[in-house]
Predict the structure.
Amino acid sequence: MVTLTSYLILSAAMFIIGATGVLVRRNAIIVFMSIELMLNSVNLTLVAFSAFLGDSTGQALVFFVMTVAAAEAAVGLAIVIALFRRKQTVNLDEINILKW
Amino acid sequence: MTLESILFIVFAAVGLASALLLVTRRNPIISALYLILNFFALAGLYLTLHAQFIAVIQILVYAGAIMVLFVFVIMLLNLRDERSLREGLSWKKVFAAGVSFGLLMEVIYILMTSASGMTELLPAKATEIGTVEAIGSRLFTRFLFPFEVTSVLLTAAIVGAILLAKKKLD
C-alpha cells in the first residue's frame, strides 16, 4: 500500500541528495543540476498532496515552479558562460571576486 | 503486492539511484544524463499519482527543453582538462554530507510520527483533477494574475540571459 507518507519521504530524500550536491560539489554546472533536482522533489511533494487531497491547486503550483525553474536555468547558465569567459573556470572556489 | 506498489518502488529506486549518481559523477555530461533519467522516473511517479498533464509537461519541459540547455552549455564550455576540476575530500564536505543526512533523518522522523488523516488515494477523484481541463480552469480563474506575471518573468529571463551571454557589453 503506497501512502502519502511514502511519497513525502521519497521527495525528502531526493531533496536532501540535491542539497548535499549543492554543498559538496564545486563544479558550477553540477551545482545547478542539483538545484533542479531540489525543485523537482518539491514538485513531487506538491503533486502528491494534490492527488491525496483531491485538489488541483498543487498541480497548478507545479506549473509555476516549472516556469521559474526554466527562467532560473536560462539566466544561471548565462551567468556560468559569462564567468567562464572571464575566468576560464567553473570551479566555485575560484570565483570569489564578491567575497569581502 | 499490487501493481501500484511495484510501480512506486521501481520508479522510486530509479529516481533515488539516478539522483545519487548525479551528485557523485565527476564528468558533468554523465551527471546531465542521470538527471534526465531522474526526470523520467519522476514523470512515472506523477503517472502513479494520476497527474497526466504534469507527467507530460515534466518530460516536454524538463527532459526536453531545460536539459538541452544544460547539455548545450556543457558542450559550449568545452572543459578541456577534467583534472583541473578535481574535487578532493575535505572535512568540510564530510561535515556538509553529515548535516544533510541528519536533516533527512529529522524529516523522516517527523513524517513517520505525525499522524496523517489522508492516506487513501481515490483514483477516480485523482484522475479527474489531473486532466488538462481541471488544471487549465484553475490556472485561468484563481491563478490568473500569477499566470500573467509568469509571462513577464519569462520575458525578463530571456532578455537577461541574452544580455549576460553576449560577448561585449556596450
Observations:
- The two ends of chain B are 65 Å apart (CA to CA).
- The first helix of chain B runs from residue 3 to 24.
